[in-house]
Amino acid sequence: MSKITAWVAAGPKSTFIKQEIDLGPLGEEEVEVAVAYCGICHSDISILNNDWGNSKYPAVLGHEITGRVVAVGSAVKGIKVHQKVGIGWTSGSCMHCRQCMSGNHNFCSESIATIIGHSGGFASRVRAHWAWTMPIPETLPMADTGPLLCGGITVFNPLATYSKPTDRVGIVGIGGLGHLAVKFAHAFGCEVTAFTSSESKFAEARDFGAHNVVSSRDSSAIQKLAGTFDLLLVTVNVALDWSAFIAALSPKGRLHFVGAVMEDIPVNIFSLLVAERSISSSPTGSPTAMAAMLDFATRHTIAPKTEHFPMSQINTAFEHLKAGKARYRIVLDADF
What we know:
By secondary structure, the protein is α/β, with parallel strands linked by helices. It contains eleven helices and 17 strands. The strands form four sheets. Strands 3, 4, 5, 8, 9, 16 and 17 form a seven-stranded mixed sheet that branches.
């Protein structure tokens, strides 16, 4: 089916309007998925507003997609019609460059972002390359798995790479990303400290698995934790007392950013040098990493805490997210 129905943003900061669009012929290596659910991520807002300067309009956003396969191209491998699948931030890569061949597909220079110049998941159907169409384990609920394909892999990847069960890990920001990070870090066996500016989230952070909770705006409280953390995972996009957080790292500790902090981060290199600390960052992850994350989430029964809106209420749902009211990921239920 080339003609589908989608919620389309005509330009920066515009509202979504339901329209019929034409996807064209299905590619040989493409999979077409009937969308059942699609999460809303803060990066959808960033692309809607052109905050990063790379948006393309008209835009069909949505990149935390789950649904059933309805068609496959002639060269598709490993994916079958009727299969339960999901699609995240990336919908395709070249499959032959050094990055793809080494398993780092998400760093492919020709990768296709699901919502930039490509029709995303706020639609009746969506397409992706077969390698980026992720089979969803049958025991994971389709309705709440979508946010794992962006928010989940974004926090899982650095935790899997840089932490071990004996580590003390701090999660900075307990929102859509952070609450999942707390769940994953707890399941890894780490001692988990949650940092949040909202006292209303203290109890929930503990429910998600945090052993300790600290205000992310209380510099004096953070300073008392000097030399504590093997890993601090920053999931927010706002400025904080970075000097205090760097000082809170143990020797060889790492301050790792997955939140898109737009302001420059002041760093005194001596604070890193004397204890061999480091600062790093990462995006989402490869198909292999996403599959590992889904397996881990299945094994440990990890799922996001979600709120659901009918997709026909997409504009209301976006205002709910912009107002900071989401607890903790919003999912749109396709109701075309």
